[in-house]
Amino acid sequence: MKDQISAVPQVQTTKPHWRWPLVMAFIRLPLVLAGSAIAILAYTQAGQPVGPAAGLAWSTLTLTVINLLCLGLLAWRARVEGFNLWEPVGFSAQRLLRDLGWGLLWSFLLGALLLAGIFAVMLAIYGGSAFESFEEMFVGEADFSIELPAWLALVSAVAFPLLNPLVEELQYRGYAQPRLIAASGSTWAGILITSAGFGLQHMSFAVTLQAVLAYAVGFFLWGLGAGFIAHRHGRLVPLIFAHFISNLSFGGIPLIFVLGGA
């Protein structure tokens, strides 16, 4: 049942550096916040002060742009540092079915970790009335009466789930994590730091303060599990499949807004 059980190829440097691994582990949070702020400001200026709902509604397009930017940064670092950007992916046609099976399994496991983190925060805040407070926690006073162009829904539903899993896994688990492990000399430290960046990025999609904490914890646990899976497999393909499965529903958010508006 073992599948290339080894670490993701380690960084071959005599003097590991922290700067760029840390940048790539945490750069997505300010980029996502900037994209959300632009969407919120644009709707406010247009006379539709819908608040954080605008950032969520446009988040898949924001992330698509961010993914292209981060992919460009990764390609630049590959030239500067002299490594093959695609090597950590480890795609093999002979192992495709096996990787799909692993991806399906890991998607369930990672989804369970995500939900466990979110529910733990819900219970900590609301106690026994956690499930009755679901709308208060994740919707709050947010105004979702927002209109979106149909092209956004179509582009996001296709481009986001195809591009996001590949770029995020290359960025977090393919680039940042092994370099942070090498720089710190600790597998735990490298995975924990990368998972923190992953969790912080996703809290930006919350529309209430309570949900900010829930998303940060839930996605931190998702990142933690993904970090160990990548480290154990030694390749990113199974994890990319798992990430793709997880992103399918999120890519449909703009479509929900469009259909709701219609």
Give the secondary structure arrangement, pairings included.
Blueprint: H1 19-26, H2 28-45, H3 52-57, H4 59-81, H5 96-126, H6 134-138, H7 150-184, H8 187-203, H9 209-233, H10 237-250, H11 253-261
Number of DSSP helical runs: 11
- Helical fraction equals over 70%
Rg from Cα? 19 Å
Average pLDDT level? 88
Number of strands: 0
- State the end-to-end distance: 49 Å
Shape: globular
Domain unit count: 1
Uncertain runs = 9-14
- Helix and strand run: HHHHHHHHHHH
Q: How is the main sheet built? A: none
Strand content: under 5%
Structure class: mainly alpha
Fold and architecture overview:
The protein is mainly α and 262 residues long. It has one domain. Helices cover 73% and strands 0% of the residues. It has 11 helices and no strands. It has helices at residues 19-26, 28-45, 52-57, 59-81, 96-126, 134-138, 150-184, 187-203, 209-233, 237-250, 253-261. Helix 2 runs parallel beside helix 8, helix 5 packs antiparallel against helix 9 (209-233) and helix 8 (187-203) runs antiparallel to helix 9 (209-233). The longest helix is centred in the middle third of the chain and has 35 residues, at 150-184. It is globular, with a radius of gyration of 19 Å. Mean pLDDT is 88; it is low at 9-14.
